[in-house]
Design brief:
Elements: E1 2-5, E2 9-14, E3 17-22, E4 28-29, H1 38-49, E5 59-61, E6 76-79, E7 82-85, E8 91-94, E9 97-100, E10 106-112, E11 117-120, E12 129-137, E13 142-147, H2 211-218, E14 244-247, E15 251-252, E16 257-261, E17 267-270, E18 281-286, E19 294-297, E20 303-304, E21 311-313, E22 319-325, E23 328-331
Parallel strand pairs: 14-16, 15-17, 16-18, 17-19, 20-23
Antiparallel strand pairs: 1-2, 2-3, 3-4, 5-6, 6-9, 7-8, 10-11, 10-12, 12-13, 18-22, 19-21, 22-23
C-alpha cells in the first residue's frame, strides 16, 4: 500500500487500484473512467451522514426518502439526538425526536436546559435554551431550514468555565477583573437584598440607621462587643451627636450616651458592664427639683473610681460624667 498526499487530496494505492480522498474530511472521490462510481458515492453519502454538522441536534425534513431536496412533502421535521452541557454544568442528553410545524410560518426549534424539544415563533428570553434551527414552511411543506446551532464554546479557569446563575462555589484564587470606565454593581436597587458571611440578606439601610447595626446586619461585623473606631491619625469631621434618653424610674441601662433624669420617686439606675463598654461615655443630667434620691449603681463587681460605693445625683442640674475601662467606671 502506498499513500500520496497533496494540498487537496490523499491517494491510497492498494494492489494497483488507487482511490482518492479529500484532504480534510477524507471523502472518497469518484475517478474518471471508473465503472464503479456507485461505490465511492455510497461511501461518501454514508460519511456525510456521520458528520457532526449533520448529526447532533440537526434539523431535517422528516420525509427525505427520494425527495431529500427541499421542499419536503410534509410539514414535519426531525431533530438528531446528542449531548450538551447545560447552564448548571451538567451533561444533558436528547435522544432525538420529530415535530410537525404550522403551515406558512417561520418557526424556531430549540431544546430547553433539561433536553425537551420546543417550537415557537421566537426564541424565549430569560431562560437557558439550546437553539437549533429556524424552519420556514409553505402551505404543505418545509421550504427552508436555517441552522442556528452554536457548535463550540470555550471555557477554562474552573471545572465548568462559568459561574452558574443559580449559585456556585468559587475555588481558591478565583479573581474577577472589573472594568475601569463605568465599573460594576452588586445589586442595582435599594430594595434588593445582600449579605455576607452567612448573614440573612437585607435591603439597603436607611440614612438614619446606626452604622454599626447596619454592618452587623450585612454580616460584615460580628454582633456583640464594642467596635473601636481607629482613624489611624485621621480627623473625624462632623459633629459628635450622642443619643439622648430620658429616665424617670429605676432600672438598668444597656446603652451609652446622655441620660436626662427626672425622678418620679427615689430611684436607682444601674450602669452597664464596664469591661464590655470599655471606652464608652455616659452622662447623667438631673432635671427635676424634687427631694427624691437618684442613685447611680455599679453592675456586678465593677467599681466607680476604684471604689464599691455607689454615687448619686443630688440636686437639679447636677451632672455626672463617666467613662468605662476594664472593670471600672471613672468619673471625669
Amino acid at each position: 500500500m502506498s499513500t500520496t498526499t497533496s494540498t487537496t487530496t490523499t491517494t491510497v494505492t492498494i494492489g494497483g487500484v488507487s482511490t482518492s480522498y479529500t484532504a480534510k474530511a477524507g471523502f472518497p472521490i469518484p475517478q474518471l473512467n471508473d465503472l464503479n462510481w456507485h461505490l465511492p458515492i455510497q461511501a461518501l453519502i454514508a460519511s456525510l451522514d456521520r458528520q457532526a454538522a449533520l448529526g447532533p441536534f440537526c434539523v431535517t425534513a422528516s420525509d427525505p426518502g427520494t425527495v431529500s431536496a427541499l421542499p419536503s412533502t410534509t410539514l414535519g421535521v426531525s431533530v438528531g439526538g446528542g449531548v450538551f452541557l447545560n447552564a448548571s454544568g451538567n451533561l444533558t442528553s436528547f435522544t432525538g425526536g420529530t415535530t410537525t410545524l404550522s403551515a406558512s410560518t417561520a418557526t424556531k426549534v430549540w431544546l430547553d436546559d433539561s433536553g425537551i424539544l420546543y417550537t415557537g415563533t421566537s426564541y424565549p428570553s430569560g431562560t437557558q435554551i439550546l437553539q437549533l434551527a429556524t424552519v420556514t414552511t409553505g402551505t404543505a411543506s418545509v421550504t427552508a431550514i436555517s441552522d442556528d446551532r452554536i457548535l463550540w464554546r470555550s471555557y477554562g479557569g474552573s471545572s465548568a468555565g462559568y459561574v452558574s446563575k443559580a449559585g456556585d462555589t468559587l475555588g481558591d484564587g478565583s479573581n474577577y477583573v472589573l472594568g475601569t470606565t463605568t465599573g460594576s454593581r452588586i445589586g442595582t436597587s435599594s430594595t434588593q437584598k445582600l449579605a455576607f458571611y452567612g448573614a440573612t440578606p437585607v435591603v439597603q439601610a436607611s440614612n438614619t440607621s446606626d452604622l454599626r447595626t447596619a454592618l452587623i446586619n450585612l454580616g460584615v461585623v460580628a454582633s456583640g462587643g464594642a467596635n473601636p473606631l481607629n482613624l489611624n491619625g485621621g480627623t473625624l469631621s462632623g459633629a459628635v451627636q450622642l443619643p439622648v434618653t430620658p429616665l424617670s424610674s429605676s432600672g438598668a441601662i444597656s446603652t451609652l450616651g446622655l441620660f436626662t433624669v427626672s425622678a418620679a420617686g427615689n430611684i436607682t439606675i444601674t450602669l452597664p458592664d464596664a469591661t464590655t463598654n470599655a471606652g464608652g461615655v455616659i452622662l447623667f443630667k438631673r432635671t427635676d427639683s424634687t427631694s427624691n434620691t437618684v442613685t447611680i449603681s455599679r453592675a456586678g463587681t465593677d467599681t466607680i473610681d476604684g471604689g464599691t460605693t455607689n454615687t448619686s445625683l443630688s440636686s437639679q442640674w447636677s451632672l455626672l460624667r463617666l467613662i468605662a475601662a476594664s472593670g471600672v467606671w471613672m468619673v471625669i
